[in-house]
Write a structure and sequence with these properties.
Layout (H helix, E strand, L loop, with lengths): L1 H15 L6 E3 L7 E3 L30 E4 L5 E6 L5 E8 L2 E10 L2 E6 L2 E8 L1 H4 L10 E5 L2 E4 L3
Length: about 150
Amino acid sequence: MARRNRVMIAAMLALAGCAKGQQAILPGNDDAAINFSRDASAGDGDVMADVPENGTAPLSTDAWSGKWIGVEGLVLNIQPAGERGRYVLSVTLLDGTKSYDGVADGNVIRFTRDGRPESIRAATGDETGLKWLAGKQNCLMIKQGEGFCREP
């Protein structure tokens, strides 16, 4: 167990010390070399600059947080609910505003509305079927005729 811990610590130190184009040779296996390159856009030079401290990368649906505008005053508001992949959805339609609990599932957010499963997905304005959103590229839709966009 102690040897395994020493090997893990040595491997982490080797990885941390790598500069662009260098290799890390892992202890106990001289044939196991790992190549590393740093992302020049990362700023501070960290190899894992895009991964938060908790070690989990952001979900694609996290970028949807905020307000999305539909036609005739319709609004979709998506806010993080505290847990990774969970959201509070506020949907304003002609009959008023209702809130739902949403859960990320790949590239969609799933929720239940009026006892039926629904999902929010990325779309173009043309895909929503709403002529007022035609030509827009940064949109979300729940179903045909229920779409929301925001400016890029």
